[in-house]
């Protein structure tokens, strides 16, 4: 409750930065397509941690009540997917501005209006969340001197509302992007990315492919090569049993970008990822780097890390 109130108060710092309204006609068309996907079907319930069970329940309500237009103003979505007016974001922004690739990053930081995002009060052309996502890419690029423009394929585990997919589409219009998430979160991705005129759908040959069953993507590593695996605070928030299913997709990648917190519920993530490093170090150059800017929320502080890897 305290964090919810603080997020609400911090949002007032951006009260003078107003987004454009999305097209009502376009919004209706997209929502009609989403309604045809049968959002009430119970077969889409998952064996999730309590945190994500509650999140999915709230997201279903948002769709049913037709209040999705301003989804990035919802506290429960901000808690999971959207960081806004936090001071550590300014330190990330400053790092990007001081980088020799700043002109490249600056283009990626331009925020969209879809979802009515809270603009970052110290850099209103973007949002705290988009700055945060671009900063993650900066960490990966610097770790291995990667030319991010040459990456053609992405697999993202837990793709949020589609922010990273949107960023990579700005980098490369022909990117092949595969998202894996729960069914209800995939609806949010569909809504956001469709509004941004991206080629997104539920087929494997869609430019941005949305997936919610493991059987849809279990052979991804056999059909694809030289792809980037991304999991920002997602793999580290799922049961160990589910994580193991993705070992082959992770080890089949060319690059790995994983962000994680030291502990999540009853799981010691730092130990888990140290073991993963030992397991794949014969194939990859692996780096576990402490996040020097982010220490969690106002109430519960802990260390956060990057798990970065490049195939040898």
Taking Cα atoms only, what radius of gyration do you get, to the nearest Å? 18 Å
Q: Overall pLDDT, averaged?
A: 91
Number of helices: 14
**The biggest beta sheet, please?**
8 strands, mixed
Annotated CATH homologous superfamily? Vaccinia Virus protein VP39
Blueprint (SSEs and pairs):
Elements: H1 2-11, H2 24-35, H3 50-64, H4 75-81, H5 87-97, H6 102-108, E1 119-120, E2 123-127, H7 128-144, E3 153-157, H8 163-171, E4 176-180, H9 183-195, E5 200-201, E6 208-211, H10 214-217, H11 220-223, E7 227-232, H12 240-244, H13 247-251, E8 255-261, E9 263-264, E10 267-268, H14 269-280, E11 284-290, E12 304-311
Parallel strand pairs: 3-4, 3-7, 4-6, 5-6, 7-8
Antiparallel strand pairs: 1-2, 8-12, 9-10, 11-12
Helix pairs in contact: 2-9, 5-7
Features:
Rossmann fold; alpha/beta; 312 residues; single chain; two-stranded antiparallel sheet
Report on this model:
There is one protein chain. The protein has 312 residues and is an alpha/beta fold. The protein has a single domain, classed as Vaccinia Virus protein VP39 (Rossmann fold, 3-Layer(aba) Sandwich). The protein contains 14 helices and 12 strands. The protein has helices at residues 2-11, 24-35, 50-64, 75-81, 87-97, 102-108, 128-144, 163-171, 183-195, 214-217, 220-223, 240-244, 247-251, 269-280; strands spanning 119-120, 123-127, 153-157, 176-180, 200-201, 208-211, 227-232, 255-261, 263-264, 267-268, 284-290, 304-311. The mean pLDDT is 91.
């Amino acid at each position: 409750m305290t964090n919810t109130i603080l997020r609400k108060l911090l949002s007032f710092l951006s009260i003078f930065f107003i987004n454009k309204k999305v097209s009502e006609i376009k919004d209706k068309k997209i929502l009609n397509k989403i309604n045809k996907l049968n959002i009430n079907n119970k077969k889409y319930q998952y064996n999730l941690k309590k945190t994500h069970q509650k999140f999915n329940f709230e997201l279903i309500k948002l769709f049913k009540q037709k209040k999705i237009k301003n989804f990035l103003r919802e506290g429960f979505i901000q808690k999971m997917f959207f960081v806004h007016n936090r001071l550590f974001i300014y330190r990330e922004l400053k790092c990007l501005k001081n980088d020799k690739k700043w002109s490249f990053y600056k283009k990626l930081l331009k925020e969209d209006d879809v979802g009515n995002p809270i603009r970052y009060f110290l850099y209103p052309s973007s949002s705290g969340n988009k700055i945060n996502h671009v900063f993650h890419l900066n960490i990966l690029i610097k770790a291995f001197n990667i030319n991010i423009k040459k990456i053609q394929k992405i697999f993202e585990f837990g793709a949020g509302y589609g922010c990273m997919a949107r960023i990579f589409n700005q980098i490369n219009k022909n990117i092949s992007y595969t998202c894996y998430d729960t069914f209800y979160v995939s609806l949010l991705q569909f809504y956001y990315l469709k509004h941004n005129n991206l080629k997104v759908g539920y087929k494997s040959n869609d430019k941005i492919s949305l997936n919610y069953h493991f059987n849809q993507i279990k052979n991804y590593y056999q059909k694809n090569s030289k792809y980037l695996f991304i999991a920002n605070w997602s793999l580290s928030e799922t049961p160990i049993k589910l994580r193991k299913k993705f070992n082959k997709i992770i080890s089949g990648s060319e690059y790995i970008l994983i962000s994680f917190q030291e502990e999540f519920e009853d799981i010691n993530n730092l130990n888990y990822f140290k073991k993963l490093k030992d397991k794949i170090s014969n194939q990859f150059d692996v780096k576990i780097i402490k996040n020097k800017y982010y220490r969690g929320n106002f109430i519960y502080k802990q260390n956060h890390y990057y798990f970065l890897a490049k195939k040898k």
